[in-house]
Amino acid sequence: MERIDRNALERFCTEVFIALGLPRDEALHSAEILVRADARGIASHGVARLWRYENGLRLGIMSGGIEPTVLRETPISLVLDANGAMGMSLSRKTMERVIGKAETSGVGFASIRNSNHFGIAGYYSEMAARSDMIGIAMTNTAALGVPTFGTAAMFGTNPIAVALPGNDGRIFSLDMSTTSVTRGKIEVYNREGNPLPSGWAVDPAGKVTGDAARLLDDMLFQRGGGLLPLGGAGEELGGHKGYGLAVLVDLMTAVLSGGTFGKSVMDSEATSARVCHFFGAIRLDLFRDPKELKSDVDTLLSELNGSPVAEGHEKVLWAGQKEQEAEARSAVEGVPLAANVVSRLKSIGKGLGIAFPGSLSG
Amino acid sequence: MERIDRNALERFCTEVFIALGLPRDEALHSAEILVRADARGIASHGVARLWRYENGLRLGIMSGGIEPTVLRETPISLVLDANGAMGMSLSRKTMERVIGKAETSGVGFASIRNSNHFGIAGYYSEMAARSDMIGIAMTNTAALGVPTFGTAAMFGTNPIAVALPGNDGRIFSLDMSTTSVTRGKIEVYNREGNPLPSGWAVDPAGKVTGDAARLLDDMLFQRGGGLLPLGGAGEELGGHKGYGLAVLVDLMTAVLSGGTFGKSVMDSEATSARVCHFFGAIRLDLFRDPKELKSDVDTLLSELNGSPVAEGHEKVLWAGQKEQEAEARSAVEGVPLAANVVSRLKSIGKGLGIAFPGSLSG
To answer: How many separate domains does chain B show?
Structure first.
């Protein structure tokens, strides 16, 4: 593990994106959102993905400078066809418009089709929370998840993020995939040769499987099987609830915007998955004086922190707390990156003539 | 199991509520919402609860004819203090106002404090769906749920309901508690002497427990322990996600309205739990032509129904489908009621001089 200065890492990524052909604003936004993930300890969604963008932009599967088409707009809503634009920058700009609508009209919503991966959903919901609003962000993703009592992938990991602010920068920030786990977790278990916990995935017959290697292979060649929804197999532990949440995300992102949903969302050689997003912002002062409201958020979160802890654990946390503490640490000590990620970034930089920043510790 | 004509059962319950002192409209609404639950096969939330209302109204813990106070109102939002009004009728009237706001302004939201149990959350979200809107309903409930790595009850079963319409009366209708299961399920396992599945509940030390009798006792006397969030114990299967969803419901219902949240929500001898609700309605035509949008909802739901089925199961269903099929059957064959529920209702009726309708089958 090395730690890299956050600003220096953002500058490096920005220069890489510019060298790959992105306009300056898109490069800045994409770099900021990727680095934010690492700063928060969500390495799966961070700069380790830079090679995918390098690859996509080089092959023309992704490209910069694409303008979305407005399909429908009202003072409180917006529907866009992204036309295959870069997901992170488009999503940031759209959330800004949604927040602007909420500032004027109390609420704002947007649904977007034909976009690309947008990084961490919580980035966008927290933008609204910082403006004294309830923030919402969702995206559908390539189909990997199997419905309750099914055997075939019919939905993605379909994350839902909702954020509400407390005082002093504290934000209740729920950002969760609606499957038990994401593919990245399966890959880790495969690399380490560990059996998967029961409740993560099923084989092509719909039976719970612990075989990570076979699962990844079956998913890759679309032989059936895939990830289980939050709540696991069957209905006993509530798998039908996670399944319902995953379908809800498809409805809010793809059905509201007229985009691609369910089993049809997949990467091809010619394009990335053309995913769909949903964003929302609802002003707190529709309900109460924001200051009083945020004090009650603080009280609720403090009560959770102060509640008694199970044996073998340290503290009861609230959604987003671990990530906000990691981000504060990253600001002081630098952003943590695994050694193999650093060497990959160095090699991307070398190919483009861009120097990778030195390590703060390592 | 007996089957009772739906209209006759509603009339019986209405007369009981009127005899117990509810105004006619509150009696009608309460009867309709309770019977709807039974018609849909959700017996836990149906007329089996009538005795609780009888008890509450007789003891003065609940009473009819209470008017809510408007705390804040805009063309798109409403905040109410229910002043302890009957939850079902108040919620139905509030959802009508929310739908009216959405008809005029595109969206409507309401947050309500100091209310009473409102029955099935899906009743309200589906009201909006039938008006070509996305419908949302949530409520907090008495604290029974234990946070990830905690040992004490810090939130209720806190259900979330979201509904979107397809064509021909079909409604995607997700209505889920955010705990793995509700207390009712634990009571069933206790009666039948079965051990609880791992992932449902923890003991006062925060360890997963299978002992239903002891759990119910520990919860009753607030010794610690309680229900696990959706996703179960720890983080391995995503229990922290269910925990986050439960807290989100507290924020949307109680913190937005200035009501009681978290561990402080509980029944006392003098009052019921004074729960808080949230309702939302968002017009479909903000996003697309509703007819086209609903056709895509149909396509998505049909693809799920048509997807391959795991061994030992019959069909892949979507959220709300089982309940909608049960309701169609109840319309023809009558509403199914367990024999012990029928005898309890007969005895309530006898005490008030109200005849219970005859059985259609038995």
So the answer is: 3
* Structure confidence at residue B362 (pLDDT): 54
Q: A286–B76: do the CB atoms touch at under 8 Å?
A: yes
Name the residue of chain A whose CA is nearest to B278's CA.
A287
Task: Output the pLDDT for position A268.
Answer: 73
Q: Which residues of B16-52 are buried (b: 16+ CB within 10 A; e: fewer)?
A: bbbbbebeeebbbbbbbbbbbbbbbbbbbbbbbbbee
Q: What's the token pair of residue A51?
A: 């090679």
Closest chain B residue to A175, measured at CA:
B241
Are B251 and A300 a contacting pair at CB < 8 A? yes
Instruction: Clarify whether residues A57 and A72 are in a common domain.
Output: no
Task: Count A/B contacts: CB-CB distance under 8 Å.
Answer: 260
B134 to A225, A303, A314, B70, B127: CA distances (angstroms)? 31, 33, 41, 24, 9
Across the interface, of A109, A287, A318, the residue whose CB is closest to B247 is A318
CA-based nearest distance A11→chain B, Å? 34
Give the three-state DSSP class for B39.
Answer: helix
The verdict on a CB contact (< 8 Å) between B248 and A172 is yes
Say what the ipTM of the complex is: 0.98
Provide block-wise average pLDDT over 10 residues at a time, chain B (362 residues): 97 98 98 98 94 92 96 98 97 98 98 96 98 98 97 98 97 98 92 94 97 95 96 97 98 98 85 89 98 98 98 96 98 96 97 96 64
Beta bridge partners of A359: A4
For residue B243, the model assigns a pLDDT of: 98
Which pLDDT belongs to residue B273? 75
**Do both A339 and A356 map to the same domain?**
yes
Cβ separation B262–A300 shorter than 8 A = yes
* Residue B87 placed within a domain: no
Among B74, B244, B248, select the one facing A286 at the smallest CB separation.
B74
Write down the pTM of the prediction.
0.98
Query: For residue A143, which residues of chain B lie inside 8 Å, CB to CB?
Result: none
Domain encompassing residue B295: 290-316
Which of A111, A154, A297 shows the shortest C-beta gap to B304?
Answer: A154
Give me the residue from B162, B243, B300 closest to A262, CB to CB: B300
> Are A137 and A99 members of one domain?
yes
CATH number of the domain residue A28 falls in: 1.10.1530.10
> In terms of domains, do B1 and B54 share one?
yes
The pLDDT value recorded for residue A362 is 54
In a shared domain, residues B303 and B348: no
Q: Are B134 and B143 in contact (CB under 8 A)?
A: no
B115 occurs within a structural domain: no
Q: Which residues of B touch A76 (CB under 8 A)?
A: 76, 105-107, 286
Q: What is the C-alpha separation between A72 and A78, in angstroms, rounded?
A: 6
Q: A79 with A171, same domain?
A: yes
Mean pLDDT of A43-72: 94
The enclosing domain of A291 has a CATH number of 3.30.1370.60
Residue A356 lies inside a defined structural domain of this protein: yes
Mean pLDDT, range A279-299, rounded to an integer: 98
Cα separations in angstroms, A82 against A112, A176, A249, B352: 6, 24, 18, 64
Asked if residue B351 belongs to a domain, the reply is yes
Cα–Cα distances in angstroms (integers) from residue A350 to residues A355, A357, B254, in the given order: 7, 12, 54
